């Protein structure tokens, strides 16, 4: 390890792996290390042995769950938005050749004690119990307004200004009921709380269009999911990096981040050896969140997320026996500030044994009893065969890293998709390279 | 109409035994004496036509150096139909390494995987450290195919890939199961991100 690198990357979570893949393609000499003996960091998918080692190190893996190797249990419940930013990166970098995707079968929303499908077609919308007849007409006018909006054509604006008028003003213009607003803001625009309502309507407009265009792409839901679990995503970008010369070392405990007298990054010490590089990128757990780092505060906790990984032996009741789904419980429905999410996948996605369903219930922690907070979600699942509860702090870096060449990524947040992960990738890329991330199609050597 | 099958083939073996050279010879019929460690090797494919006109397309995965520090991802072994485990006949230790990789394959890959053990650098037979008898005996015990090759001269290279093609189960591809053959081309059962990409200018056909 006496070579010098351009960049050392610590942690093989998706954010770090996308960055090392893109940096390697750009010709940077990258050394990528992880303290774990598996890829994925906090965004890994674990087999049963690894899952038990993480949550119940003193317990044996039960034998009635099937083969260990059939499992790839996600630690973070997220789906890929079909027309979203992650999809663009997957296509541009061509890592799609290492992956196979399936649709998530349905998207549901909780309302007045029961769950209903978020309509994916006009037919479903007409039949949907989410709105009454007159409300459906008002909603139709609202969606037509959004679809027809052209920035340069005031005739399509109906007197509204998306950049100035709040979403509240837009909702009121079309006379939408609070329940419909809940459904649009949370199940379609995918906001976790109601703060968006008083802000300008533009971002909400963008989010709704992203949702509807993603829905239109494959039909059943706006989400796609990689076979064998989300952990395949970081692996595919790690392979991209390796193909472009990136060096990979798993199972490497990091002893210290070495800095010079001015506090600037020098290298990383692992197993008594120090490897030098110009820059370091890493997830928060390598910079004070868990590691010792000379007492310097490099990351701060912004809040906590509670996630309960549940094994079921049946599909979730009320989801038309969907093999996979998302259920959103808007905060208003259960008197909370933040939505509760359920993400469910099954053997259709090669993440567990046949007839097992893996549901993750999650939300942002608001009280000192996080497990009670996810109760409304757990109650929708029916009998739970087994449950692993994880309460994870969300860390964010205290500085941009430009001064000391130490660039820290963010923890995986409570959103149900990867859009914020890509925002973080773009942000770190800009801090590290000084330029905006522009996706170039890489040259592909295709034979026969 | 002649049948077409597509299989995933993974390469394994210690660094510098000639994994990439072997593939380069097979796919492009080239050899480079001073080849650097694998950098930028794209996804390679090569088609073998059998006597009955059945064509077998190999989708070849190189380790991209991830074997060096024991950091090959599970994705690498996933759905591999066949593996070529390479050792260097002039380095006894490389056969030991090959045994380790074969154990890893038996643990991680689909049980139906076809494994070929391949002693490379036959052109350097004068410096041989691994006897044919020893390697063959081990291969027989483990039920592996075995041969010796020279990526440099090309000796034995096409033969081993053809032999693998003949040994693979050429039955009707059952969709989407580990170890099952995929009908070529493009018989993925899931969604194709490339094809329906809404973003501009990427209508390029996907070859995977």
Structure summarized in a few sentences:
The complex is a heterodimer of chains A (448) and B (208). Chain A contains 12 helices and 19 strands. By secondary structure, chain A is of the alpha/beta class.
Sheet bearing the most strands of chain B, described? 7 strands, mixed
Question: Could you give the distance between the termini of chain B?
Answer: 22 Å
Give the class-level CATH name of the domain at 119-218 in chain A: Mainly Alpha
Helix content of chain A: 25-40%
Rg estimate of chain A, integer Å: 23 Å
Radius of gyration based on Cα positions of chain B: 17 Å
Q: pLDDT under 50 segments of chain B (min length 5)?
A: 174-187, 196-208
Overall residue-averaged pLDDT value of chain A: 93
The backbone outline of chain A, from C-alpha atoms, is globular
Give structural attributes.
heterodimer, A: 448 residues, alpha/beta, Guanine Nucleotide Dissociation Inhibitor, domain 1, seven-stranded mixed beta sheet, 12 helices, 19 strands, 27% helix, 24% strand, B: 208 residues, Rossmann fold, globular, disordered C terminus, GTP-binding (chain B), membrane (chain B)
Would you kindly provide a written description of the structure presented here, covering whatever features stand out?
Chain B: Residues 194-208 have a biased composition (Polar residues). Chain B: Keywords: Cell membrane, GTP-binding, Lipoprotein, Membrane, Nucleotide-binding, Prenylation, Protein transport, Transport. Chain B: It comes from Agrocybe pediades. Chain B: It is a lipid-anchor. The complex is a heterodimer of chains A (448) and B (208). Chain A is of the alpha/beta class. In chain A, 27% of the residues lie in helices and 24% in strands. In chain A, strand 12 (265-270) and strand 13 form a beta hairpin. In chain A, helix 1 (14-25) runs parallel beside helix 9 (232-243). The two termini of chain A are 39 Å apart. The model of chain A is unreliable at 443-448 (pLDDT under 50). Chain B is of the alpha/beta class. Chain B contains five helices and seven strands. At the A-B interface, helix 3, strand 6, helix 8, helix 9 and strand 10 of A face strand 2 and helix 2 of B.
């Amino acid at each position: 390890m006496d070579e010098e690198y351009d960049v050392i990357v610590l942690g093989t979570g998706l954010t770090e792996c996308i960055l090392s893949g893109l940096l390697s393609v750009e010709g940077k000499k990258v050394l990528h290390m992880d303290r774990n003996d598996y890829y994925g960091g906090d965004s890994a998918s674990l087999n049963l042995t690894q899952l038990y080692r993480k949550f119940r190190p003193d317990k044996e893996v039960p034998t009635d769950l099937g083969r260990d190797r059939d499992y790839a249990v996600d630690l973070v419940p997220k789906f890929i938005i079909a027309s979203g930013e992650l999809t663009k990166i997957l296509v541009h970098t061509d890592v799609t050749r290492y992956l196979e995707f399936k649709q998530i079968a349905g998207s549901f929303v909780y309302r007045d004690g029961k769950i209903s499908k978020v309509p994916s077609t006009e037919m479903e919308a007409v039949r949907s119990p989410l709105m009454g007849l007159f409300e459906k007409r008002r909603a139709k006018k609202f969606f037509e307004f959004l679809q027809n909006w052209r920035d340069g054509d005031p005739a399509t604006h109906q007197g509204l200004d998306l950049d100035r008028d709040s979403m509240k003003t837009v909702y009121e213009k079309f006379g939408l009921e609070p329940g419909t607003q809940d459904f649009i803001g949370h199940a379609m625009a995918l906001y976790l709380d109601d703060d968006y309502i008083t802000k300008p309507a533009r971002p909400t407009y963008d989010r709704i269009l992203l949702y509807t265009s993603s829905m239109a792409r494959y039909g059943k839901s706006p989400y796609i999911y990689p076979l064998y679990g989300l952990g395949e995503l970081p692996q595919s970008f790690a392979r991209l990096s390796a193909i472009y010369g990136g060096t990979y070392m798993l199972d490497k405990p990091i002893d210290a981040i070495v800095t010079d007298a001015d506090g600037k990054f020098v290298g990383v010490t692992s197993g008594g050896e120090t490897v030098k590089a110009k820059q370091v990128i890493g997830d928060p757990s390598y910079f004070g969140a868990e590691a010792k780092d000379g007492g310097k505060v490099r990351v701060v906790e912004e809040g906590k997320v509670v996630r309960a990984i549940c094994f079921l032996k049946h599909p979730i009741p009320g989801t038309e026996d969907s093999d996979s789904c998302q259920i959103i419980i808007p905060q208003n429905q259960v008197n909370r500030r933040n939505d509760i999410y359920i993400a469910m996948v099954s053997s259709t996605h090669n993440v567990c044994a046949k007839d097992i369903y893996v549901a993750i219930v999650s939300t942002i922690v608001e009280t000192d009893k996080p497990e009670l907070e996810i109760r409304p979600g757990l109650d929708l699942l029916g009998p739970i065969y087994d449950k692993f509860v994880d309460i994870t702090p969300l860390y964010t870096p205290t500085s941009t890293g430009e001064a000391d060449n130490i660039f820290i990524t963010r923890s995986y947040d409570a959103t149900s998709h990867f859009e914020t992960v890509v925002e973080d990738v773009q942000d770190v890329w800009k801090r590290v390279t000084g330029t905006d991330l522009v996706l170039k199609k890489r040259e592909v050597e295709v034979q026969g | 109409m002649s049948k077409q099958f597509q299989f995933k083939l993974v390469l394994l073996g210690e660094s510098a035994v000639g994994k990439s050279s072997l593939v380069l010879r097979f796919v492009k019929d080239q050899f480079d004496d001073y080849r650097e460690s694998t950098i930028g090797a794209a996804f390679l494919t090569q088609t073998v036509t059998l006597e009955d006109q059945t064509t077998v397309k190999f989708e070849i995965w190189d380790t991209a150096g991830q074997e060096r520090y024991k950091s090959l991802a599970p994705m690498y072994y996933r759905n591999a139909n066949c593996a070529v485990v390479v050792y260097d006949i002039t380095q006894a230790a490389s056969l030991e390494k090959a045994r380790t990789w074969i154990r890893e394959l038996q643990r991680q890959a689909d049980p139906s995987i076809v494994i070929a053990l391949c002693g490379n650098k036959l052109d350097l037979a004068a410096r041989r450290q691994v006897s044919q008898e020893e390697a063959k005996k081990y291969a027989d015990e483990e039920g592996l195919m075995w041969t010796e090759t020279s990526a440099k001269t090309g000796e034995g290279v096409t033969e081993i890939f053809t032999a693998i093609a003949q040994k693979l189960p050429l039955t009707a591809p059952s969709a989407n199961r580990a170890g099952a053959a995929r009908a070529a081309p493009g018989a993925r059962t899931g969604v194709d991100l490339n094809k329906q990409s809404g973003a501009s200018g990427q209508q390029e056909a996907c070859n995977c």
